[in-house]
Design goal:
Elements lengths: L2 E6 L5 H13 L3 E6 L5 E3 L5 E3 L2 E2 L10 E4 L5 H6 L2 H12 L3 E5 L3 H6 L7 E2 L13 E2 L4 E4 L2 E4 L5 H11 L3 H10 L2 H6 L2
Parallel strand pairs: 1-2, 1-6, 2-5, 6-7, 7-11, 8-9
Antiparallel strand pairs: 3-4, 10-11
């Protein structure tokens, strides 16, 4: 089973933080939310307070198949200022493992040089903060071991694509059907 960790900061966007957790858990993936604070409780961008599974000080990220960053402001900025998050992402990249960011959070990857020469997307207006990236403006973009998403509306397709990146294409297809995503797309 894949092991995924998602970093949560004060001001992270609720839908971007929680949708991926919901979808991956429905697929049986072990995804853990990790507070960057000393406490497990974190208040998100619209005043929703959640209790994370662990704190960054207590989490052992060495078994991570994937690390994820939700967007939102000031959440993405808070993630970018967290040295432990930055080190974890650099270690993940050095090991050739997967990572992803959505909305404003690709700015963290850009600031670390992890988007150099890669195709990536983000929330419109943050393109200049994805240092080294070839901006796609797509709903989500996968390039090698990296996935980026453009914002709140991207959360379901982004989550299904993460499942596929982790080798769970059948589960992604079943969830698209079971969560009525296919019906939504057919209604366009």
């Amino acid at each position: 089973m894949a092991k995924v960790y998602e970093f949560i900061a004060p001001g992270s966007e609720e839908i971007e933080a929680l949708t991926v957790v919901d979808v991956l858990r429905r697929a049986g993936i072990d995804i853990q939310t990790v507070s960057i604070l000393p406490t497990r409780e974190v208040t998100l961008s619209h005043g929703v307070t959640i209790t994370c599974d662990a704190t960054i000080a207590s989490a052992d990220l060495s078994d991570a198949d994937m690390l994820l960053l939700p967007g939102g402001l000031p959440g993405a900025t808070n993630l970018n200022e967290c040295q432990e998050v930055r080190e974890a992402l650099l270690n993940q990249d050095a090991a050739g493992k997967k990572y992803g960011a959505i909305c404003a959070a690709p700015l963290v990857l850009g600031s670390l040089g992890l988007l150099n020469g890669k195709r990536a997307t983000c929330y419109p207006g943050f393109e200049d903060q994805m240092t080294g990236a070839d901006y796609t403006a797509e709903i989500y973009t996968i390039d090698g071991n990296t996935i980026t998403g453009c914002g709140p509306a991207a959360t379901l397709p982004y989550s299904y694509a993460i499942l596929e990146m982790l080798g769970y294409a059948n589960e992604a297809a079943a969830l698209r059907e079971g969560m009525m995503f296919n019906k939504l797309m057919a209604a366009k």
